[in-house]
Amino acid sequence: MFVKIINKMQKILRVSVVVMTCLVVGYLSGMVTRDSISTWYPTLVKPIFNPPNWLFAPVWSILYIMMGIAGGLVWNKIEKDEKNVMTAFKYFIIQFALNVAWSFIFFYLHNPFLALIEIVLLWLMIFETYNQFKKIDSKAGMLFFPYLAWVGFATVLNASIWWLNR
Description:
Number of helices: 6
Number of strands: 0
Strand content: under 5%
Largest sheet: none
């Protein structure tokens, strides 16, 4: 009984650690965008389907939470399938680094074209992370669908902004 409680607490802790890591890194990444959102970004021509600025923070917060839960669910399978979990986490870390890099490229460097190239790579890496996660835990894979959809939309938005401002 005591071992089951410890195991359950360990699983909750793993999910919590990954969720908090995603939220903290996402918050720090968002700090890069703050100045540009009030200075550079308003000067760009944007397509009619551009969401209002206030929508991005809650959407990304939800996506980071879902990403963290997915990562924690996969981490919880490490005793059963260490090799695949470690491989999946490599993809997870790469896609997360690309996620952070996009904000830097687009908002800090003010380079929508380079950001467009990068976001395509990001989407592909998210898709591969989804593929790796679903092999280990189907729920973890499903938690990546909204992220894939949002980054797909963001890719179209990024391409449109680049095109309209080239």
